[in-house]
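Help!! Second protein's tokens look totally different from the first
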Amino acid sequence: MRGADVSRDPCPWVILNDAGGAFAMGAIGGGTWHFIKGARNSPLGERFRGGVNAMRARGPIIGGNFAVWGSMFSTFECVLKGVRRKEDPWNAIGSGAITGGLLAARGGWRAASVSAVFGGVLLALIEGVGIAMSRAFAQQPPVIAPPPSS
């Protein structure tokens, strides 16, 4: 595949890797969020215990939701890489749109299409920022002065 990213694992393994990373990110972020929420909603003497209970109850659920999103996104990205025989930002944008649409499919066509557009736009913004950052921080070639005229 032309322009393949050799720093990442091959496609079957990247799906598992991304699902695990997404689960960890969701579990840690969701656990922190629900710990704070549980502590705030608990009575004065029970704040820590209420935070821990809320974190234990909701943190793994949020992690599982993130893992589903991450694994679907990686699966569709691998499929698009294989079908298109290219590795470019359009794969991520299309994967975000397909993932958003499929996750909202139970809500009907309208919800699925809105979520698909939102997922595609969100991934386009992420890819655009990544491209802009890599261009902004790329090393510029040294300027070579023209030879002196005689």
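Here's the second one for comparison:
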Amino acid sequence: MRMSKNKLVRPQAEETLDAARLELGADFQDAECLLISEVKVLLEAQYDSKKEDKSMDEIYSKTLEYVQKFSRYTNRDTIKEVRALLKPTELEPFECAQLGNLCCSEYEEAKSLVPSIGNKISDDDLDSLLKQMDSLKKYQG
């Protein structure tokens, strides 16, 4: 609390965020969620266009290094196919991005790591989706 012209001003109640219940905050209300592989494609394209530009800062370099390390899909066609698999589901964009980034091998693991999935998709459908994504990852060119 702080004083303002002899009045006691209480700080605004902070928004409670919980990704497990898809309470991501106002900043993410209408935001598109990207796969790490999609961020990699975007950053590499920007890097290629500014290769001679020495203004690439440390944050950019570290981010590029991170996405290169953790990107699960190595080519654009595979990324598009993964997106196409995830799009017709009843899952929220955040949940789709989490599934695409985590590359879970079993539906129990996926539901444990992304608890907001809950009963939005049957175990069999989720298992099938994960197997298709795994197949794309294994056989990408």
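Reply: Different proteins will give different token patterns, so don't panic. The first strand starts at residue 2 and ends at 4.
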